[in-house]
Amino acid sequence: MPELDLSRSSVELTRTLCDIPSVSGEEAALADAIERAVRAVPHLIVDRHGDTVVARTDLARSQRVAIAGHIDTVPVHENLPVRDIESDGERFLWGRGTVDMKAGVAVQLILAAELTAPRVDVTWMWYDHEEVDAASNGLTKLAAARPDLFAADFAILGEPTQGFIEGGCNGNLRAVVRTHGRRAHSARSWMGVNAIHAASGILDRLTRYRPREVIVDGLVYREGLNAVRIRGGVAGNVIPDLCEVEVNHRFAPSTDPAEAEAHLREVFDGFELQVVDVAAGARPGMQAPLAREFAAAVGGEVRAKLGWTDVARFGGLGIPAVNYGPGDPALAHHDDERVPIAQIEGVERGLRAWLTD
Amino acid sequence: MPELDLSRSSVELTRTLCDIPSVSGEEAALADAIERAVRAVPHLIVDRHGDTVVARTDLARSQRVAIAGHIDTVPVHENLPVRDIESDGERFLWGRGTVDMKAGVAVQLILAAELTAPRVDVTWMWYDHEEVDAASNGLTKLAAARPDLFAADFAILGEPTQGFIEGGCNGNLRAVVRTHGRRAHSARSWMGVNAIHAASGILDRLTRYRPREVIVDGLVYREGLNAVRIRGGVAGNVIPDLCEVEVNHRFAPSTDPAEAEAHLREVFDGFELQVVDVAAGARPGMQAPLAREFAAAVGGEVRAKLGWTDVARFGGLGIPAVNYGPGDPALAHHDDERVPIAQIEGVERGLRAWLTD
Questions:
Q1: Residue of B nearest to A247 (CA)
Q2: In sequence order, what E strands does chain B have?
Q3: What is the DSSP-derived secondary structure letter of residue A100?
Q4: Which of A125, A288, B77, B165 has a CB 3.0–4.6 Å from the CB of A320, allowing a cystine?
């Protein structure tokens, strides 16, 4: 059974965590190792729920912060074990999970063990099934089973942000826009109605659409509306009676899901539209005192998070939440996933500086 | 083993032929029955090649006519055995194969046995695998193995035409038109290029396209250009890098395949285009003396055939060819396939009148 040594450096621990593969659904061995390591730390109260491990301080501080990271990865693709590489004079850990997001988890584990008396009480959460559907997500299940563990005044998610604070997140909506026609033999096409030709109107609206940039709590959220899938057709000699365009809308956290849906219905007025998935965004909450103190301690620019992350789960509970972790999110899920060692160390310094004040 | 009684009526024989299921690839039992029945007819010389049966007269007539029909059907869909139905005072045989095209084959078999001294020599051909790819088609294989059997001055294919003569056929071309883009996470869509949005230009051209009507040898061929399939997309959160639109072009028999392809390249100028399948049409050949005599004997309007049929195989050999058979082609492949009994009898009368003069 793999052992985690929380007294070593966060870079070494990143390597160990990555080399215990934990693709979504196969996190048990890693969750076991994390649980055993944090149960050995006297100042932490540990709970286990499925493959999610929660470790809390109980210092009767006036404020509590949740700091969370997921322990699963997307499938390995010949990019394990982890390797040390150097590129343009910069040192990296290369391999699956280095960016998304075991370096962030490593920093959290090191600090959970090291900081016996942080300035706020901390609830550390390491959870499973983030890379798959929302219903399987360890945080979703934990919130249903143990809502008490979510009591917090502020939350930090260790998702990759290149070591910058990224506040909140955009909302995310997927919908299918459909056209209907009437089948006919393509030798007598005028006896039918071509649903793929009718989808021309949907694509026209998409190409003409100009997404907004929306300022929320001082941060700029860039929106988006894109076709992500298109399907239509029956056979090579049949006029198609159905065409489906799946669109993905990213909307600023000042817009709620109902408003986002209403906007799409306006954009695609005249077409059948069915929402298949929607997740609210999260406001950055950078006006909250704890958030401002965190930003001051960490330093550097505060940005808007454009991708949807689990910060929205905290936002939904009224808890201001930010993303803060090492690694470039554009390299997440990439075969060439790699994290700069300096960013792991920088995030470790930033979190330690704020928690010890 | 099923027995075919060629002395009964063509309507009765249609019933028997349909009730011997012969979906493409499973024609052997029916081919065996046909072969045995025509080998019992003294004035016919019989050849068998795979599941194709050829029966010829050898009367040293100055002219020879090929009369052909395929014996396979598309899959049965709870529409066998054949039933007698009546609708709006008209009597039908209902079931798979009644239209496409066992009624036509039944008429041919009856006349092959009955007409000991037709005014022209006749080469009767009953072939397999018409409803599937061209490479499997029994006529394709016979033409490669026994080109001598295709010697003829005129050809009649018994495909359903509602008892009218339909001359020649339109050509048929399928092509894939592609757009390329660049993948990106849909939360940062501006870092990618959306190939589905780019396909808007392809659909615009299709919706603006106005097909021609072309007069060839006095018959009007209506052309067509339609999307029959569209595919694009990688995942719900990825900007797609490829979109493919499959188009089907039906072109008049006065246009050859190279001209049809050049036309499409002009229509989709600026897009990648790949021809996946092309078949030349067939000119109606109604100026040929035998064709005119045939039209005069049968009577009624002569129309253009819009769907592609095996007449093009004869056209490609320089043999004028027409379609002439009972049944509405719009009901071919339909679950509710049914042929009017009057049309079976009418086509039998028409062919007999011409062949006996």
A1: B236
A2: 45-49, 52-56, 64-70, 83-87, 90-94, 121-127, 154-157, 165-167, 171-180, 184-185, 213-216, 219-222, 224-233, 238-239, 242-251, 272-279, 302-304, 321-323, 338-340
A3: I
A4: A288
- B130: annotated active-site residue: yes
Q: Does A185 touch chain B (CB under 8 A)?
A: yes
Task: Say if pTM beats, i.e. exceeds, 0.80.
Answer: yes
Low-confidence ranges of chain B (pLDDT < 50): none
* Among the partner residues B203, B222, B250, nearest to A186 by beta-carbon distance: B250
DSSP of A107-152, one letter per residue?
Answer: HHHHHHHH-SS-SSEEEEEEES--SS-GGG-HHHHHHHH-GGGG--
* Paired residues of A231 in beta bridges: A244, B231
Across the interface, do A200 and B200 touch by the CB < 8 Å criterion? yes
- Calpha distance B309→B35 (Å, rounded): 24
Tokens of B193: 């290029």
In this predicted model, what pLDDT tens digit does every residue of B111-136 receive, in sequence order? Answer: 999 999 999 999 999 999 998 888 89
Residue with tokens 């009007």: B220
Closest CA to B229 of A21, A194, A272: A194
Tell me if A228 and B233 make a contact (CB, 8 A cut-off). yes
Given a cut of 80, is residue A346 above it in pLDDT?
yes
CB contact under 8 A, B227 and A194: yes
B166, β-bridge pairs: B303, B323
Element (H, E) at A225: strand A224-233
